[in-house]
Design brief:
globular; five-stranded antiparallel sheet; about 100 residues; four-stranded antiparallel sheet; mainly beta; Jelly Rolls
Length: about 100
């Protein structure tokens, strides 16, 4: 995977009816992961072990943190601190990069 030029749209597909992910890089707690969700699919509440950000490169999703929710669409980035409980709801078929730092 190193030293390759990748097309974001080709990294991961929405071919199944469930959450898909592909880890592109990983080192201890840091990682770069491509994630694909179908419309109305939910990633249940969980906690990140490190600071993170998501870059939505296709579709639109809501990220729920306690009482706050953020709608993130194609071309936008959402950043958040570690140990923040959150869940994700796909408002459309959605693909995003999860970058854990």
């Amino acid at each position: 995977m190193y030293y390759n030029v990748l097309e974001l749209k080709d990294i991961i597909q929405n071919k199944t009816d469930k959450f898909e992910k592909k880890v592109l890089l990983e080192n201890e707690n840091s990682s770069l992961t491509a994630i694909a969700l179908k419309k109305d699919e939910i990633i249940d509440t969980h906690i990140s072990v490190c600071d993170a950000c998501v870059y939505v490169f296709e579709g639109e999703a809501e990220f729920h943190f306690d009482a706050e929710k953020f709608k993130v669409k194609k071309g936008e980035i959402l950043m958040f601190k570690k140990e923040q409980e959150h869940k994700v709801l796909a408002l459309k078929d959605t693909k995003f990069l999860l970058i854990k730092i």
